[in-house]
Structure formats: structure tokens, C-alpha cells
Design a protein that fits this description.
single chain; mainly beta; 6-stranded mixed β-sheet; 60 strands; flat
Length: 682
């Protein structure tokens, strides 16, 4: 065989030729394998040579050869069942792709042969230690943090790059390492794009020919600050050893109120100067003479609760410390003290919320407004002229008479009778009442000879007032009639257009309020009657019904309920529930409303009528009325078989249905409920 040792450019290789010396020998074949592959320098590998022949299992020895001849301990390995193995340690410093061989010696009957195996020797790398830090480790939006990765190796300065990431999001890509020592290097990344919360940031080292890849993590807390810290230093330019007073003020950024809880910490990067508690105006001070020479950034951290949450807020101020005393700055004149000359209004409810206008002098730069010892809920400063302003403040809750004071950089206003604000207990509003009739009550009927039935008494406010011609509208009294109290603001009424002579419609409005009119019903000339229930606001206890048409029409009004609330009658809509479907004759039919909540006093019924053979009307009334059928109607129908619907209020429980003729098909569905008080007809 011939073996090429290789060099820095080319890998080693080998070749051979088989000579047949004895024509009586049989040819053999040698194959070689190696495990593991690839392998690192200094690692052990096992070579296996398999010799085969057509005339049986070969015997004899095998020599394993490397770049420099026989491998130590592997120069003559006996075959066992045609296989010879050898374990060998790859020398240190070896690398690249190499070719080793195995040579079978042959015997009296078998010819020698040689086999080759090519494998890869990988260079040896060592692990480097990587650490990741963040400065600061906690910051508030819209701040930033500096991420620094430190890679420390065992021999030689690490090279390569660092990629900084948050999950799948790359913050800084492939930042080259910069050597900081014989065995260390760093890379940095400044970021302001971390989301609010506790973020785990990863620094990934790319590795190099000498060091393997690795990574490290650190956490950074990003907060959204509901509180703001403002910091001042007085003076800002000092000499070494001179005292400066650091003052921090913490305010709620939502309501601009002072934060008076928690602690305020003043400090340098690696040194705490003071830990103080904020006063009632959210302020704390720290006097220090320990600042080092140079430009010093003093960091301030407030830790407390705001809006029911634990909050940390930050501020900073720069102080320049010189070796020698700088020339003193020119004196700053003290601003004048504020003066309150009037407030308006001078009283308000004990619950607070009154907008109070404060006038006076020297109110510029107001930082606080107090009602007694309590800060105003909010305040704003309005410029009156180039020389002065006025303040509009929201009074906080309180009692008695207190002084309203304003604090500016010039001080706090002196108290006087002009700034006194008196808290008064408001008179509770009248209770809201709502009610509905156990039975409809007729309060208006314009048909001649038909009088409205109010507790058995004849009421002629509408008799003979047929609408049409010169009379196009009718104003009727509602409040004080039919169980409706005199202070009612709205009522539920069923308005029926009876025997119109021409097409038209009815409109209903609160009396004397034509801008709040709503349509009631439309009808065709010659119709029998069209009824529609509606909730309408009252104007002075009355409503106005307007007829829009060319003919004449009579109007019937039945009252069903009322409310004294500024809003309409309270009815809760529910999923429709069918309670009856069938034909109704002149014999009353009893039905029962079930499935409603236990506190339900009344139900809103949708009445649908179809297939009537003659004109007529439906009356629904309480079962307790017995055989007495009230003179009211829930819906009127024509004998042409058409389908019509209306809605009315009725008691919850058992009811009677009555039709005065026409054999109509009637469907009753519950569409709403109320728990308001039932009132008797009056």
C-alpha cells in the first residue's frame, strides 16, 4: 500500500495493490468501518475490519494503519469469524477529513487484501461562560434599558456575535463582541420596545472556532406609570462637600392629586442617600452633602399604592458638583403669595362635586387647592388676562364651613371670610311612583251618548267632541283621573279610532308640547275601529290628540298605567310566552298567566285577532271581577277577517277574555312584566 499523510490544504489518503504470489490462493476482500463518525481529537474510536472470501471464513491477522503507519496496539490483530477490531485514541490537535486502512495478511490458501475508511475529525471547542444584565432592571414607559452580555472564556479573548431577543422578537441582531480582557468580551443593546410586564430577555452567543455557542437570560420589569415623580435640586450647582436639598413630589397622573402613602427613595446608582415618607401634599425632601465631584444623576423611586394597585414610579435630577466654588447665581426674587378674594358658589352638597370658581391675585402656577384639609378632587387654571388667572376646582366631599386655600411657589393663601365654603345637606328628591290599573279605565269617549266611565261616575269631558272638519285636535285631562295621581309625568293609554269616514291617522302629544308628538294609529275610511296602546308624556297632566284626515273620526281613551319618573313606565321585556289561542264568543273565557317571577304584579300582553266574521272588540279584565264586564276595550276588530294586534297591561294571574261578537281567533302572548304597584279604579 501507499499512504499520503496530507497537509494543511489536502486530507490524507491511501492506495494499494494486491500481488498474487501463489496461484493456488483465493482472492479476499477487506472492508473497514469506524465508530463514532465524526469524532473529536482526544476521543477513542473503534475500527472494525471484515475479511470475506468465496472459499470460506478467512483466518489470519489484520494490520490497521493511519497517516504514520501502524496504529499503536493495532499492528497485528487476529481475525475472529472473519472480523478484527481495534480501539484507538485520536491524537490531540488532529482535525479534518482523514483516510485510514486495514491490511489483511493472507495465509496459505487466501490472498492478502486491503480496505479503506474515510472519517472526519472535528476541532475541539470549549464552553465559554455568558451572563446577561440589564441597567436599569426596572423602568417605566417610555424609558429604556441597556442590555449587556459578558462572555468569559478559559483561554483567549472570545470572538463572535451576540443576538438579543425577547421570545421570537429580535431586539438587536448579531452585535459583535468587544474584548474587555485577555479572556472576556462584551456586547450591548439599548432597547425601549419591551412590553409592559416582566419580560425575559435572551442573549445568544454565536460561538467561534475556540468556544461553543451558548446563551443566557435576564428579566426586565416594564411598568406603565399611573403616578408621576417630579424632582428638583436646590441648588443644582454645588462644590464638593456643599449641601443640596433634593425635593420629590408624587402625583396621581389621572386626577392630579398628591400621593401621600409609601416611601420615596433618593439615591445614586450604587448608593442610597435618603428614604422618606411623602407628606400630605405628596412631597419629601433629602438634604445631602455626599455627592461626588462631576455630573451626578440622582434617581428617585416612589413605592406605594395608586388606584388600588402597588405602583413604583421614578424620577431623576442632575446636580453638578465642582471642585471649587462656582460664582453664585443671581438671587431669584421670591414670588408673591397668592390671595383669594372670592369664591362662587360659596356652598354645595356634602357629597362634593360642586364646580367652584376661585378668583384672586397671584394664582399663577397653583400646585394645590384645598377645601379645609382636603385636596380638591380636580382643578384647572383659566387665564383671565396676561396678569392673572382664575381657578375652577371640584369640591371634595365634606361637612360644615371650610376655608378654600390655594398653594403656589409663593406660599399658601391666608384664610378670610371671602374664601369660606359651606357644605349643605341636599333635600332628597320626591320618591318616584309608578302604577297600573287592575282594569282599564275609560276617561274619554267622543261618541255622542257614550260617556266615559270613571268609578261609576259619568265624565263628559269628551262627549260629542268628534274630530274632523273645523275640530282637528282634542286636549283631555289624564292626571288626577282613573287612579293616575296629579303629579304623574307619563301614562299608558289605549287610544281607539272609531268609525272613521276617511283615511287618516291619530297623533298624540303632551299638551302644549307639539315637538314631542308621536303617531298612534293609521286607518282607512269606513273601518270599524283601530286601537293602539302607547306610553305618552303628560304636559300639565294632559295630552293632545290630533286627527290628520279629511273626514271625521271618534276617539276612545282607556288609561292603563302611569309613572311620576322623568322616564317612561318601567316594563321589562321578556322572551314571548304564549298563554292562549282560540276562538272567543260573548261568553267570557278564563285564562291563567304562569311562568313569571314571583314579584310580578302585571304583564304586558300582545293581543292578536284574526278571522272575525263581524265587527267587535275584545275586553280583558281580572278574574276577580266575576260576571261584571267593564266598559273598556283592549282591541277592536273588523268583520273582514283581517289580522290586527295591540298591547295592554293586565294583572298577573287569572283573567277573563270577552268578545262582543264576530267569533274571532284570539292569540294572547306575554311580552313583558312589571313589579309596579296595582292601583284601583278611581
Amino acid at each position: 500500500s501507499a499512504i499520503y499523510t496530507g497537509n494543511s490544504t489536502y486530507a490524507s489518503s491511501g492506495g494499494g495493490v494486491t500481488l498474487i504470489i501463489n496461484s493456488n490462493t483465493t482472492a479476499t476482500t477487506t472492508t473497514v468501518s469506524v465508530s463514532p463518525n465524526p469524532v473529536s481529537a482526544g476521543q477513542s474510536v473503534t475500527f472494525a475490519a471484515t475479511v470475506s472470501s468465496a472459499s470460506g471464513t478467512p483466518s489470519g491477522t489484520v494490520a490497521f494503519l493511519g497517516n504514520n503507519g501502524n496504529l499503536p496496539g493495532c499492528g497485528s490483530v487476529s481475525l475472529s469469524s472473519g472480523v478484527a477490531t481495534c480501539t484507538y485514541t485520536i491524537p490531540s490537535g488532529a482535525s479534518g477529513q482523514v483516510t485510514y486502512s486495514a491490511m489483511y495478511s493472507g495465509n496459505a490458501t487466501l490472498a492478502p487484501s486491503i480496505g479503506y475508511v474515510t472519517f472526519t475529525i472535528e476541532p475541539v471547542t470549549t464552553s465559554a461562560t455568558i451572563t446577561l444584565s440589564a441597567n436599569p432592571g426596572i423602568y417605566a414607559v417610555p424609558g429604556s434599558t441597556d442590555l449587556t452580555a459578558l462572555v468569559v472564556g478559559s483561554s483567549g479573548t472570545p470572538t463572535g456575535t451576540i443576538t438579543f431577543s425577547l421570545g421570537a422578537t429580535v431586539l438587536c441582531s448579531s452585535v459583535p463582541l468587544s474584548g474587555t480582557g485577555s479572556t472576556s468580551a462584551t456586547a450591548s443593546c439599548r432597547t425601549s420596545s419591551l412590553p409592559i410586564g416582566t419580560d425575559t430577555v435572551t442573549a445568544t452567543y454565536s460561538g467561534s472556532s475556540a468556544y461553543s455557542a451558548s446563551s443566557a437570560t435576564t428579566t426586565v420589569q416594564v411598568v406603565a406609570d399611573p403616578a408621576a415623580v417630579t424632582v428638583t435640586a436646590n441648588p443644582t450647582h454645588i462644590t464638593s462637600g456643599q449641601t443640596t436639598t433634593l425635593t420629590a413630589t408624587v402625583k396621581d397622573t389621572i386626577n392630579n392629586l398628591p400621593e401621600t402613602n409609601g416611601t420615596i427613595t433618593f439615591g445614586l446608582t450604587n448608593e442610597t442617600l435618603c428614604i422618606e415618607t411623602p407628606n400630605t401634599k405628596g412631597t419629601a425632601s433629602c438634604a445631602t452633602a455626599n455627592l461626588p465631584i462631576g455630573t451626578d444623576t440622582v434617581y428617585v423611586q416612589w413605592s406605594g399604592t395608586s388606584g388600588g394597585k402597588n405602583v413604583t414610579a421614578y424620577g431623576r435630577v442632575t446636580v453638578i458638583v465642582a471642585k471649587s466654588s462656582p460664582p453664585p447665581p443671581p438671587p431669584t426674587p421670591a414670588p408673591p403669595a397668592p390671595v383669594v378674594t372670592a369664591i362662587s358658589p360659596s356652598s354645595g352638597p356634602t357629597s362634593g362635586g360642586t364646580l367652584v370658581t376661585i378668583t384672586g391675585t397671584n394664582l399663577f402656577n397653583a400646585g394645590y387647592v384645598f377645601f379645609g384639609n382636603t385636596a380638591a378632587s380636580k382643578f384647572s387654571i383659566d387665564v383671565i388676562s396676561q396678569f392673572d388667572v382664575q381657578i375652577v376646582a371640584v369640591a371634595p366631599p365634606g361637612t360644615g364651613t371650610v376655608n378654600v386655600t390655594v398653594t403656589t411657589p409663593g406660599g399658601t393663601s391666608a384664610t378670610s371670610s371671602a374664601d369660606q365654603f359651606t357644605y349643605v345637606t341636599p333635600t332628597p328628591p320626591a320618591p318616584v311612583q309608578s302604577g297600573w290599573q287592575t282594569t282599564q279605565v275609560r276617561i274619554c269617549d267622543t261618541r255622542p251618548g257614550n260617556r266615559s266611565d270613571l268609578s261609576g261616575m259619568a265624565l263628559s269631558q269628551c262627549e260629542g267632541d268628534t274630530l274632523g272638519g273645523a275640530r282637528q285636535n282634542l286636549t283631555i285631562q289624564v292626571a288626577g283621573l282613573g287612579g293616575v295621581p296629579a303629579n304623574a309625568t307619563a301614562a299608558i293609554v289605549n287610544i281607539t279610532a272609531s268609525h272613521p269616514t276617511a283615511d287618516g291617522e291619530l297623533i298624540v302629544c303632551p299638551a302644549n308640547t307639539p315637538t314631542e308628538c308621536i303617531p298612534v294609529s293609521s286607518f282607512q275610511g269606513g273601518a270599524y275601529a283601530v286601537a293602539s296602546a302607547i306610553s305618552v308624556a303628560l304636559g300639565g297632566g294632559k295630552v293632545t290628540i290630533e286627527y290628520r284626515g279629511a273626514g271625521f273620526v271618534n276617539v276612545i281613551v282607556d288609561v292603563e298605567g302611569y309613572t311620576t319618573s322623568p322616564t317612561r313606565f318601567p316594563i321589562q321585556l321578556i322572551k314571548p310566552v304564549s298563554v292562549f289561542s282560540g276562538h272567543i264568543t260573548s261568553t267570557p273565557v278564563a285564562i291563567t298567566v304562569t311562568g313569571t317571577p314571583t314579584n310580578t304584579t302585571g304583564v304586558a300582553l300582545r293581543i292578536t285577532v284574526s278571522g272575525a266574521t263581524a265587527n267587535g272588540f275584545i275586553t280583558i279584565y281580572p278574574y276577580t271581577s266575576g260576571s261584571h264586564i267593564p266598559v273598556v276595550s283592549a282591541i277592536n276588530f273588523s268583520g273582514n277577517g283581517s289580522t290586527i294586534s295591540n298591547v295592554m297591561l293586565a294583572p298577573n294571574g287569572k283573567l277573563y277574555l270577552y268578545a262582543n261578537g264576530g267569533d274571532p281567533l284570539v292569540t294572547i302572548t306575554v311580552v313583558g312584566i312589571t313589579s309596579e304597584t296595582q292601583v284601583a279604579k278611581a
